[in-house]
Amino acid sequence: MFWIKACPKCRGDLYEAADIYGKYIACLQCARYLTEDEQARVETLQTAGDRMQDVPGRLERIAA
Ligand SMILES: [Zn+2]
């Protein structure tokens, strides 16, 4: 997953990845790792990938 211009430090682009410790979100531009609080906030934002999906699917996920 990607979030365009969502980095709290530099307004860079964030991406989601995972390693042996689990899932994390980091910035492409400044390499900053988000805290759990920041991750939770970012995950409520619209992602670049979500724009490709149809509206009924989005509404279903929000309701669930
Ligand atoms: Zn950044």
Order of helices and strands: EEEHH
User: How would you sum up the global shape?
Assistant: globular
Low-pLDDT segments: none
Residue fraction in strands = 15-25%
Class from helix and strand fractions: alpha+beta
Quaternary status of these chains? single chain
Widest sheet: strand ordering: 1-2-3
CA distance, first residue to last residue: 20 Å
Structure in a nutshell:
This protein is an alpha+beta fold and 64 residues long.
Describe the model.
- By secondary structure, the chain is α+β, with helices and mostly antiparallel strands.
- It has one domain.
- The chain is built from two helices and three strands.
- It has helices at residues 36-43, 55-63, and strands at 2-3, 14-19, 22-27.
- It has a three-stranded antiparallel β-sheet with strand order 1-2-3, with no helix packed on it.
- A hairpin with a 2-residue loop joins strand 2 (14-19) and strand 3 (22-27).
- The longest helix has 9 residues, at 55-63.
- The chain starts with a strand and ends with a helix.
- The structure holds zinc ion (ZN).
- Zinc ion is lined by residues 7, 9-10, 12, 27, 29-30, 32.
Topology at a glance:
Blueprint: E1 2-3, E2 14-19, E3 22-27, H1 36-43, H2 55-63
Antiparallel strand pairs: 1-2, 2-3
The structure holds zinc ion (ZN).
Descriptive tags:
64 residues, alpha+beta, three-stranded antiparallel beta sheet, binds zinc ion
